[in-house]
Amino acid sequence: MKLSRSCMVGLLASGLLGASSLYLWAADSRQWKSLEKDGLHDPENPALKVMQPPGAALRLLPPDSAGNLVNWVKALRDRYINPRTNLYETTQVRILDSDILMKRTAEMPYVLFPHRAHTEWLDCSNCHEKLFKSQAGTTPVNMLAILQGQYCGQCHGAVSFPLTECNRCHSVPRSSVGVPQTAK
Ligand code: HEC
Ligand code: HEC
Ligand code: HEC
User: Fold this and answer.
1) How many CA atoms lie within 13 A of 113 on its CB side?
2) C-alpha closest to that of 142 among 153, 133, 126, 134
3) What is the pLDDT along the chain (184 residues), one digit of tens a residue?
4) Residue 24 Cα, ligand 1 centroid: separation in angstroms?
5) Cα Rg of the chain, angstroms
6) Are the CB atoms for 18 and 166 separated by under 8 Å?
7) I need a surface site. Which of 46, 103, 149, 182 has the fewest CB within 10 A?
8) What is the SS3 assignment for 77?
9) Nearest to 34 by CA among 60, 57, 18
10) Residue 182 domain-assigned?
């Protein structure tokens, strides 16, 4: 199985955090790699010196325990950030406030996919109709494909929280029968 690089980094990071988070969490103990050491930037590039170190910017944002250690949905909702929604005036911003309950999860809790938390950042065309069909239950999503970078894995583990955070997606207990699809 081919795990994406960022997914591997995510796995590593959350393993390390798991061990240390208990006693370090009270104070903001979040640590970010310097640009020279993040494996993404060329450490030889002299321009790195003029760039802001990640920790200087990210420390001001609400904490998370995985990925780049920022809860981005909270950062947006609580107005820590106010990103521009469109480049062109003619672009129509569409926000959809409906959740999809995905039940093919074997023994795991069901997955609740929230449209709102996605459409606050992403236009529908990022997902429909190529990644997902606009009809609940019709896309053949499964965990192996996700771990290989398809479906949810196109973004999660790459630009959004990593796949090690099982319970962020698998958030609805199987015992809760008859959960309304719009529950949240
Ligand atoms: C980004 C969201 C997301 C994360 C994170 C996630 N899953 Fe899933 N998982 C899904 C979706 C979506 C499905 C398919 C649900 C459907 O089609 O009804 C799924 C399906 C599954 C299934 C069902 C069997 C299969 O092969 O599809 C298992 C088991 C599973 N996940 C385990 C896990 C475990 C363990 C983790 C953490 C290591 C995890 N998942 C993390 C979204 C996620
Ligand atoms: C981040 C990905 C993503 C974005 C962005 C997104 N959707 Fe979806 N949408 C999904 C997924 C996943 C499903 C469930 C597909 C499945 O179960 O096969 C879904 C299902 C739907 C459905 C079917 C609902 C039902 O109950 O059958 C409609 C309609 C829909 N989306 C419309 C939209 C519209 C309109 C937008 C933009 C405002 C949008 N979606 C943005 C991922 C997305
Ligand atoms: C096109 C990119 C993209 C795809 C595809 C995608 N997501 Fe996301 N997702 C995001 C972004 C961006 C965020 C917000 C940033 C973050 O939380 O890391 C997010 C956030 C979330 C959240 C957190 C909501 C909250 O209130 O904190 C959940 C849960 C989630 N996604 C589940 C899923 C599931 C399940 C799938 C597949 C069915 C999926 N996502 C597919 C980009 C995507």
Assistant:
1) 19
2) 153
3) 444 444 444 444 444 444 444 444 457 889 999 999 999 899 999 999 999 999 999 999 999 999 999 999 999 999 999 999 889 999 999 999 999 999 999 999 999 999 999 999 999 999 999 999 999 999 999 999 999 999 999 999 999 999 999 999 999 999 875 655 444 4
4) 30
5) 18
6) no
7) 46
8) helix
9) 57
10) no
Distance between CA atoms of 9 and 142, rounded to whole angstroms? 22
Q: Which residue has a Cα nearest atom 8 of ligand 2? A: 134
Tokens at 51, concatenated: 């760039």
What distance in angstroms lies between residue 118's CA and the mean position of ligand 3's atoms?
6
**Residue 51, domain CATH:** 3.90.10.10
Q: Give the span between the Cα atoms of 157 and 10, in whole angstroms.
A: 7
Atom 36 of ligand 2, residue of closest alpha carbon:
124
151 within ligand 2 shell (Cβ under 6 A): no
Among the bound ligands, the one closest to the CA of 103: 1
Instruction: Count the domains in the chain.
Output: 1
Ligand 3 contacts (CB < 6 A) are 72-73, 111, 113-114, 117-118, 121-122, 126-127, 131, 141, 151-152, 154-156, 159-161, 168-169
Asked if residue 45 belongs to a domain, the reply is: yes
Question: What burial class does residue 82 get, using C-beta atoms within 10 Å of its C-beta: 0-12 exposed, 13-18 middle, 19+ buried?
Answer: exposed
